[in-house]
Amino acid sequence: GDVDLDGKNFGGWTPLMYAAYIGHDNIANLLLEAGVSVNATTSKGLTPLMLAASCGNESIAYFLLQ
User: Fold this and answer.
1) Long-range CB contact pairs, 42-49, < 8 A, 24+
2) Do you know which SUPFAM superfamilies this protein is assigned to (predicted)?
3) What is the model's pLDDT at position 47?
């Protein structure tokens, strides 16, 4: 079956949010190329860009802004 790459866990986090927060550039790029939402928010209103910036993951922040 198909996998929902924009699916959220109980905290409202998507795979892209985890990649942005942890700094997994390759995973983030693959998810972005697959067309995941860059505007999704966690249950606390945080976006992938905010999560990347909060951890100093500049390369992911750059890709999220493209």
Assistant:
1) 42/11, 42/12, 42/13, 42/17, 43/11, 43/12, 44/12, 46/17, 48/14, 48/16, 48/17, 48/19, 48/20, 49/20
2) Ankyrin repeat
3) 98
Domain 15-55: top CATH class: mainly alpha
In the chain, where the domains are located: 15-55
Rounded CA-CA distance 42/1 in Å is 26
The amino acid sitting at 33 is E
Give per-residue pLDDT as tens, 47-60: 999 999 999 999 99
